[in-house]
Amino acid sequence: MLEIDVPGYNLLRLEHLVLDYNGTLACDGELLDGVDSALIDLSGVMRVHILTGDTFGLARESLAKMPCELIILPATNQDTEKLHYVEKLGPAACAAIGNGLNDRLMLRAAGLAIAVSQREGVAVETLMAADILVHDIRLAFELLTYPLRLVATLRL
C-alpha cells in the first residue's frame, strides 16, 4: 500500500493501481519503453490492474510476464465497466490512470486520478475528471514512486 498525506487535500491510502492500456501504457498496441520495468516496480507496492478493450489485440501477449491482472473488456459500455471495476476494489483505495473518454468515470471515482496526454491525446472529459495531468506515463509512475511530488502538486 502507498500512503500519502497531502496537506489540505486528502490522506491517500492506495492499494490498487488501475490502468488503461492503449494510449496510456501502449501506443498502437505496443508497450511504451520503460513501462514493463515500472509496472514490475510498482507491483511491489500496489496491486496492478489493467483494463482494456484491446483495440489492437496485443495486450495479452505484451503483458504476459507482467505482475498484473489484465481485464479485456467487451466492445461496448467500457466506461461503466471500468467504473464498476474501481467501485468493486473500493474507489478510495485506487489510483487510476487513463486518457480516453472511456476512462473518465473510473478517474472521477478513484482516490487519485491521473490523466496522460501522449500520442493519442486525452479526452477533455477525462482531463476534467483527473487530479493531475502528465504528458508521459513514465511521469505518472514517478509520481507514485516519489510521492512527495504528488504532495507538491496537490496540497492546498
Give the tags.
single chain, 156 residues, alpha/beta, six-stranded parallel β-sheet, two-stranded antiparallel ribbon, 7 helices, 10 strands, 27% strand, globular
Annotation field: number of helices: 7
Helix % is: 25-40%
Strand order of the largest sheet: 7-6-3-8-9-10
Mean pLDDT: 97
Query: What is the percentage of strand-forming residues?
Result: 25-35%
Q: Stretches where pLDDT falls below 50 for ≥5 residues?
A: none
Characterize the main sheet: 6 strands, parallel
The run of helices and strands is EEEEEHEHEHEHEHEHH
How many strands in all?
A: 10
Content-based structural category? alpha/beta
Instruction: Quote the distance from N terminus to C terminus.
Output: 24 Å
The coarse silhouette is: globular
Cα-based radius of gyration, to the nearest Å: 14 Å
Could you explain the architecture of this structure?
The protein is of the alpha/beta class and 156 residues long. Helices cover 33% and strands 27% of the residues. It contains 7 helices and 10 strands. The strands form 3 sheets. The protein has a 6-stranded parallel sheet. Strands 1-2 form a two-stranded antiparallel ribbon. Helix 1 runs parallel beside helix 6. It is globular, with a radius of gyration of 14 Å. The two termini are 24 Å apart. The mean pLDDT is 97.
